[in-house]
Amino acid sequence: MPKVGMKAIRQAQLISATLTVIDRVGLAEASLSAIAKQAGVSTGIVSHYFGDKNGLLDACMRQILLDLYLAVERQRRAADNTPEAQIRAIIDGNFDLTQVAAPLLKTWLVFWTNSLHQENLQRLQRINDRRLWSNITAQFARVLPHEQARAAGGSIAALIDGLWLRMTLAQKPMTDGLEQARSLCYQNLALWLATAR
């Protein structure tokens, strides 16, 4: 009889192991056996909980997206309820220290790349993109006309994604560029808000 709560523990353990293995050897070399070895379990346990490598990658991305959502929500709850403060909180959540651990960064790149070819990951990517854009756009819509709010939301969402990509590919640790990334986003935000006055 399995222990109560063991499924959640095992799944979290295997997701963490997957991030570590992808960081170390890349997706192509991240076999179920390498992941199982990293987690200290049998390959059968991985298959039992996730089916195959695609199922495990899907679960990893769901966890990463949940963690990102929670980071953004934590920032938004702490911010004032003005459009500027809420958009700054969304920016801060996307560049939160919880989002820049090395294994996580490479998995994001794997996710983006594989979402071009795997329908389940493509769907998750669309949800993530849509959430970011719509949350920013909703705040801009409080002070800008509809079409301008949509353009402003798209601008900041693209800037966040572009900065993430550049920092992930950089040779130095991503934490070195966090303040600059936030600052660039804040500057873009200020330019859009200036058109509302």
Secondary-structure blueprint of this entry?
Layout (H helix, E strand, L loop, with lengths): L5 H20 L6 H8 L3 H8 L2 H26 L4 H12 L7 H13 L4 H22 L5 H24 L8 H17 L3
Helix pairs in contact: 1-2, 1-3, 1-4, 1-6, 2-3, 3-4, 4-5, 4-6, 4-7, 5-7, 5-9, 7-8, 8-9
Descriptive overview:
The protein is mainly alpha-helical and about 200 residues long. It folds into two domains: about 1-50, Arc Repressor Mutant, subunit A (Orthogonal Bundle), CATH 1.10.10; about 60-195, Tetracycline Repressor, domain 2, CATH 1.10.357. The chain is built from nine helices and no strands. Helix 2 packs across helix 3. It is elongated and about 60 Å long.
Largest sheet properties: none
**Structural class determined from secondary elements:** mainly alpha
Shape: elongated
CATH architecture assignment of the largest domain: Orthogonal Bundle
Helix coverage percent: over 70%
Organism: Paramixta manurensis
Pathway: Amine and polyamine biosynthesis; betaine biosynthesis via choline pathway [regulation]
DNA-binding region: 31-50
GO molecular function: DNA-binding transcription factor activity; transcription cis-regulatory region binding
In short:
By secondary structure, this protein is mostly helical.
